[in-house]
Amino acid sequence: MKHIALTPFGRAPATLAQVAAARTAPPCPAVDKWTLYARLRTARVRLGVSDRDLGVLHALLSFLPERELRDGEPLVVYPSNATLSDRAHGMPESTLRRHLAALVRAGLVARRDSPNGKRYAARSRAGELVAAYGFDLRSLLLRAPLIEAEARAAEAEAQALRARRAEAVVLLRDASKLAALLGASEAADPLDGARSLLRRQLGPEQVAALVRDLSGLVDNLRARLAPAEEMSGNDGQNERHQQSPIQKDHDPIGGHEDEAADAASRACHEIEEPVRPRSHRAGGEAAIPLALVLKACPELLTYAEAEPRSWRDLAALAEKVRGYMGIASTIWVEARSRMGPDLAAATVAVMLQRFGEIRNPGGYLRRLVERHAEGRLNLSGLIFGLLGRQGA
Asked: Pfam families attached here (predicted)?
């Protein structure tokens, strides 16, 4: 058969795309059909086809016996709708026709309709293929360079989007911790909105807008921290004095502990009042910011699957590490009952950070509980002392 049909069978009108697809094109290099299909999946959005359209194309490609698409070889497949539906995992024929039409519109498949609209192959008496009517897959071969270019562009866009999204996550983390450090309750709504957005599938423009908003929020919070940074010299002097409570307190039962604690309390008086929980109920928040505890006690995070986001998370993590530290459950229950879950968890975090200097963790925690009951525990002093050591 010399003539290639330019128009579809039946009442369907001809289109310019159909005519263009029937034109003779120069020979193309051979392409692995499954490699090309994989690149097409990467570029499908840019080429305007859906994943279900590609599912039908996969079924069509499976009817070609050879793995490579080569010019000069038969590239027309002619399965019936029933056979194609079965190969497409039982897709209904009405749905099948819709996806076939989408592939034709995208220029990935061309129709080669027979005089009666049926799909079949005409063969000679010797069994040689004379003509085939069905779906011509040579269009894939012709568009292979375009598919590869679009796939590369899609990969570049995806990489840029991942980088921008990672930037948004880091900015959100910085904004959250700075807001907690400052006690900036007005930042709660923007931060919650940003967390909600990051749980969705965002486009490049949406991610860029989110990065701009979070950058502005972080800059604003950092500007509010500037006055505190200017006073760092005096604070540093106070912090150096605060290192003594746990350094000298190698023996929790020894007689030097009370004197060291009193000295630390006096040194920290100008920084912050003694830390007490707002509530002894489960989940009650301590007066000291959670972010400050985590900054002063980074050793605690090595035992965490994820960074604690609330005092409840910190209490659960403290419950886990106190066993590693050799603190008996009876002492831990007593500490939670008398100090409150938040203050007890923060105390264990401080102890873990200085664990190498404490001979008897259980006895040390019990002594701190007694000191709290007497109103002489200044946990903020210990925390600022740890921060001062980090700065040194």
From this structure: RP-C (PF03428), RP-C_C (PF11800)
